[in-house]
Amino acid sequence: MSGPIAGTRLADLAVWCDELDGTRVVFGEGTLAGLGVAARDLGLHSVLLVTDPGLRAVGHVAQAERALEAESIRVRVFDGVAENPSTAEVEAGRSAAEAASVDGLVALGGGSTLDCAKGINFLLTQGGRMEDYWGRDRATRPMLPSIGIPTTAGTGSEAQRFAIISQEGTGTKMACGDAKARFRIAILDPALLGTAPLAIRATAAVDALSHAVESHVTRAATALSDLLSREAWRLLDGSVERHLADPQDASARASMLLGSFLAGAAIEHSMLGAAHACANPLTARRQVTHGIAVSVMLPHVVRYNATAAPERYEALGAGSAEQLIDRLRAVQRIAGLPARLRDCGVVVEDLDLLAADAANQWTAGFNPRPVDRDALRALYAVAH
């Protein structure tokens, strides 16, 4: 990591380019207009533009198409992405890409869109099913060049090699990761956050905050992930209220988007913990929106972990573990999100099954304090 990310104040950054983990990062208001040039730099001639109907409605898709077509790049739009992309959506996108004979992919949207595009890339270049790539480093052939353009400040998927894809039928979230699946270029245009409704801004924001918190305390944390997660927390914590109150606050949305990206990059070098292990079954079993599920569970996980790693929470820059919990609760209230599982439609009878699922989540193994089925069940119970 070098250049502006490491040393320049955000307020001094108009537009800059840098590279992190092999992804060229382009940051600044209006940078979506450079999409065509970015695609041409990758040698692309025909791309699948992966997105969702909402972004088509607000005009972002047309803007992306114009930028690509200005560089004589053919565009096929696939807007069949929904929240928590499934294996069926990935397969539909693969069919669209194959029919258009594309040589690259562009993902324009939230984390679901970015993950779906990575999944499409897996199937298009490797064949088989998404289940074949559940885990890490299972791609054996090169993958197509891709560009990620987030329109929410949440998942940080544009900074990661993993695609989170839900298995059709079971709802199980599969983490499919490979360095070849990384976006070659990430375009971070804060202007794109200005059209997101409050509900999306809120759930994305708490997800990004959770990434900064959990990636800082995992067993796998490194000096680099510490640097990334601390800077992510500083940017997110300092701007979240303003971003939720006014999506047209340019400074706030720039800080949120950059903070989300850095938190996503921190995950690449550290992973996540028990809050995400608990959240995934809530989404799969009870269709609780991911950001809400993490928001409900994270304060309880912080308190559970505090006896094992109090200094790790303090080093984040949010004060003590209890002060961090208070801050997370405050953001939850400001965002208008539920504080209890019972408010999300979860009943006590669900907890045993949820705990069994959570114990099998990959992220559970990275939690700083060991968790098993009983510990996870207790976390669900106190959150209920």
Name the descriptors.
384 residues; alpha/beta; Dehydroquinate synthase-like, alpha domain; 2 domains; 7-stranded mixed beta sheet
Task: Explain what you see.
It is a single chain. By secondary structure, this protein is α/β, with parallel strands linked by helices. The protein folds into two domains: about 5-190, Rossmann fold, CATH 3.40.50.1970; about 195-384, Dehydroquinate synthase-like, alpha domain. It has 16 helices and ten strands. It has helices at about 5, 35-40, 55, 60-70, 85-100, 110-125, 200-215, 225-235, 240-245, 250-270, 275-285, 290-305, 310-320, 320-335, 350-360, 375-384; strands at about 15-20, 25, 45-50, 75-80, 105-110, 135, 145-150, 160-165, 175, 185-190. It has a seven-stranded mixed sheet, sandwiched between helices. Strands 6-9-8 form a three-stranded mixed sheet. Strand 8 (about 160-165) and strand 9 form a beta hairpin. Helix 7 runs parallel beside helix 10.
Report the C-alpha radius of gyration, rounded.
Answer: 19 Å
Annotation, overall tally of beta strands: 10
What's the CATH architecture of the largest domain?
A: 3-Layer(aba) Sandwich
Number of domains: 2
Oligomeric status: single chain
Quote the beta fraction.
Answer: 5-15%
Overall form: globular
Low-confidence region ranges: 1-14
Strand order in space, largest sheet: 1-2-10-7-5-3-4
Structural class based on helices, strands and sheet pairing: alpha/beta
| SS summary, helix count | 16
CATH class of the largest domain: Alpha Beta
How much helix is in the residues? 40-55%
Distance between the termini: 41 Å
Query: Largest beta sheet, briefly?
Result: 7 strands, mixed
